[in-house]
Amino acid sequence: MIFKEIPILELLPQRPPFVMVDHLTDYSETQSSCDLTIRPDNVFCENGEFASAGLIEHIAQTCAARLGYYNKYVLKTGVRLGFIGEVKDLSINRLPREGETIETTIVVVQEIFDVTLVTAEVRVGTEVVATTRLKIAQGQASEEV
């Protein structure tokens, strides 16, 4: 399957202008990736840079896209809401700039019930711009599927 062809809104509970991923670029049960081109009208773009809060939200939405794909295409259920439970060991080498495309890869470290612990690496090309660990808690299925 070519993941980039799946409309991202099918996988996420978020809606514009708060969508921080353009495409799911890779999926497996333990690792997934999403990209985002930083546009000047992005709510997290300030003075030509993508804010750190935007990076965290992009990582969280990469997790959401992975879970959305799993729920919709594997389990054949609705997309579930998710919540950031913890951000740990956040390291930002630099903020991405307007016009750059970031790609985030998340690796599942552990899943217990409805809580997923992931490590994340955000890159611009081959340059690592940020890394972190996130805990994501899943909630109910959203109204839209």
Give a summary of the structure in a few sentences.
This protein has 145 residues and is of the alpha+beta class.
What can you tell me about this protein's structure?
It contains one helix and eight strands. It has a six-stranded antiparallel sheet with strand order 1-2-6-7-8-5, with helices on one face. Strands 3-4 form a two-stranded antiparallel sheet. Helices cover about 15% and strands about 45% of the residues. It has one domain (about 5-140): Thiol Ester Dehydrase, Chain A. The longest helix is centred in the middle third of the chain and has 23 residues, at about 50-75.
Task: Draw up the topology in text.
Elements: E1 23-27, E2 31-37, E3 45-46, E4 49-50, H1 52-74, E5 80-92, E6 101-112, E7 115-124, E8 127-141
Antiparallel strand pairs: 1-2, 2-6, 3-4, 5-8, 6-7, 7-8
User: How many β-strand runs?
Assistant: 8
Largest sheet: 6 strands, antiparallel
Number of helices: 1
| Structural domains: how many | 1
Record the strand order, biggest sheet.
1-2-6-7-8-5
Note the beta-strand portion.
over 45%
If you consult CATH, what is the topology? Thiol Ester Dehydrase, Chain A
Keywords summarizing the entry:
single chain, alpha+beta, Thiol Ester Dehydrase, Chain A, globular
